[in-house]
Amino acid sequence: DLAHTVGNVPLQLHDWGCDFACWCTYKYLNSGPGNIAGAFVHERHAHASVADLPGRLTGWWGHRKEDRFEMEHHFVPSPGAQSFMLSNPPVLCIAALRASTELFAKAGMDKLRAKSLKLTAYLERLINAEIGHEYVEIITPADPEQRGCQLSLVFKGDMQQVHQALSKQGIVCDIRKPSVMRIAPAPLYNSFHDVFNFVRLLKTLVVAA
User: Fold this and answer.
1) Nearest 5°: phi and psi at 181?
2) Residues in contact with 150: Cβ distance below 8 Å, sequence separation at least 6, in sequence order
3) How far apart are CA 49 and CA 79, in angstroms?
4) From-to residues of CATH 3.90.1150.10 in the chain
């Protein structure tokens, strides 16, 4: 499950020998709510038959092109990743995702990750220095190699009140009741100034709560 990984940290799924992975695209890839998902299948499974992989995804668009429209009652997969195709994806969804992935390709995941490490470290340092454990506690691993850009905070006070106040200021954070708020400075479009202003506002709100 790479929902919080794709668009967040560099991946080498083939080199790592991963058999299968799936993810959404509306999070860090910014494709929009309800957009299509993505999947990875290692090439060693690319030519597997239905018998080899019972329960695998089989749609008519994954049938080999030569006789796809003959509508026979058996499935002959196309070679490679195309055998896992089901049907035609929504065009507008693909347009949004294409625009996003082009931006990621232009920026480069390695450069984005390098900025992300600094952004999240800056966020972590400011929270610990300016707010402290009296009000919030960071429960995300402190080791940068064990996390992406997101920090999860446990609130000692009224998290809901703080979340509503942040929303009114146009700051989008995610909450998990009863007391966890997830903060994710995205390197593609968030700046160090954004992080500084966020922590300054958060400090005011948690003290008031």
Assistant:
1) -120, 135
2) 4, 8, 120, 140, 182, 183, 184
3) 10
4) 109-208
Bridge partners (DSSP) listed for residue 183: 151
pLDDT digits (tens, 9 = 90+) for 164-193: 999 999 999 999 999 999 999 999 999 999
Query: What's this model's pTM, rounded to 2 decimal places?
Result: 0.89
Nearest 10 degrees: Cα torsion 84, 85, 89, 93: 40
In angstroms, the CA 101 to CA 134 distance is 41
CATH label, 109-208, candidates 3.40.50.300, 3.90.1150.10, 3.60.140.10, 3.90.180.10: 3.90.1150.10
Please name which of 71, 46, 52 lies closest in space to residue 60, comparing C-alpha atoms.
Answer: 71
